[in-house]
Amino acid sequence: MTDLPRIPLAGVIGHPIAHSRSPALHGFWLKRYGIKGHYIPMDITPADLAEALKMLPKLGFVGINVTIPHKETILKLADVVTDRAALIGAANTLIFRKDGKIHADNTDGAGFMANLRQHAPHWQPADGPVALFGAGGAARAVIAALIEVGVPEIRIANRTRLRAEVLRSDLGAKLVVYDWVHAGDMLEGAALVINSTSLGMTGKPDLRLPLHALERGAVATDLVYTPLMTPFLTEAKSRGAHIVDGLGMLLHQAAPGFERWFNHRPEVDDATRAAVLGA
Ligand code: NAP
């Protein structure tokens, strides 16, 4: 019998997983580039994680995306962890290497920056301070990426102040922590304003912070992408900000994994957005 090449498999693991847009995204790219391969959503409980990770390469998987609740715990199961994943304390992209080692990376911060470059190309890191709402896992990835590109100052406010203080002690002195009740003050002179809380997401309360200090012409971006136009972005736009929605971050964070697994750098363009929005 001839040995046919194996069809590469990739996928996303999480618990739950049904809401994930990643299968629609990777499925679109596989079809667009005529690649023989599959991308599969897999609901894996924390109790089954270690065993599943051992089995997946044997089943023909070349890598996977990792989402809630496994993004942090997966680091302990990986053999090689990139610097940025270690700094963030979480991974979203795994590569199952030919030598049997599991390589873990975090592409959220790079996805955030690529989205900003695509939709607010005039923004430069040196333009001024950044104001960021939230101090969760996504905030950590975004802050690490902002420090890497050289922003001068990152003002941060979180409902649970302690979480913001921990970020400051982990990620450095460029961070200035504000009280959640004074979060509106961070906007004065800020060139970039980011919502990294889950507020504004469908089914969650709105982000209700005073935006009167938002500078006209500042860039405002939301990590939430359901809905695309969050109440925060709507108000920021009405105050003259240049807005960037969160869908592009999702698309761009997926590109490096796709490239490593299927040997093709996918394009993030309007057709990609439309494919994911229509799914
Ligand atoms: P997380 O670790 O659970 O953090 C949630 C954040 O939201 C925390 O700062 C939390 O504050 C805040 N928050 C939640 N409910 C709140 C409330 N009622 N009032 C005030 N603050 C509240 O989540 P995450 O992973 O950082 O994700 C945050 C958001 O970004 C989610 O909506 C996620 O879908 C989105 N996201 C988008 C992308 C993308 O590609 N566009 C990527 C990653 C994440 P406390 O610390 O006080 O609880």
Class based on secondary structure composition and strand pairing: alpha/beta
Largest sheet: 6 strands, mixed
Q: Quickly give the CATH architecture of the largest domain.
A: 3-Layer(aba) Sandwich
Count of the separate structural domains: 2
User: What is the end-to-end distance?
Assistant: 40 Å
Broad shape: globular
Number of helices: 10
Question: What portion of residues belong to β-strands?
Answer: 15-25%
What value does the average pLDDT take?
A: 96
Q: Within the CATH hierarchy, at the fold level, what is the topology of the largest domain? A: Rossmann fold
- Indicate the percent of residues in helices: 25-40%
Instruction: Please mark out the parts with pLDDT under 50 across 5 or more consecutive residues, or reply none.
Output: none
How would you classify the quaternary structure? single chain
Bound molecules: NADP nicotinamide-adenine-dinucleotide phosphate
Strand and helix order: EHEHEHEHEEHEHEHEEEHEHH
- What is the total tally of β strands? 12
Q: What are the defining features of this structure?
A:
Rossmann fold; 6-stranded parallel β-sheet; 10 helices; 279 residues; 2 domains; 6-stranded mixed β-sheet; alpha/beta; globular; binds NADP nicotinamide-adenine-dinucleotide phosphate
Structure description:
With 279 residues, this protein is α/β, with parallel strands linked by helices. It has 2 domains: 9-106 and 250-277, Leucine Dehydrogenase, chain A, domain 1 (Rossmann fold), CATH 3.40.50.10860; 109-245, 3-Layer(aba) Sandwich (Rossmann fold), CATH 3.40.50.720. The chain has helices spanning 22-32, 49-58, 74-77, 83-88, 108-119, 137-149, 161-171, 231-238, 247-262, 270-277, and strands at 9-14, 38-43, 61-66, 80-81, 93-96, 102-105, 130-133, 154-157, 175-178, 192-195, 219-222, 242-244. Strands 2-1-3-5-6-4 form a 6-stranded mixed β-sheet, sandwiched between helices. Helix 1 (22-32) packs across helix 9 and helix 5 crosses helix 6. It binds NADP nicotinamide-adenine-dinucleotide phosphate (NAP). Residues 108, 111, 134-139, 158-160, 163, 196-199, 201, 205, 223-225, 246, 249-250, 253 line the site of NADP nicotinamide-adenine-dinucleotide phosphate.
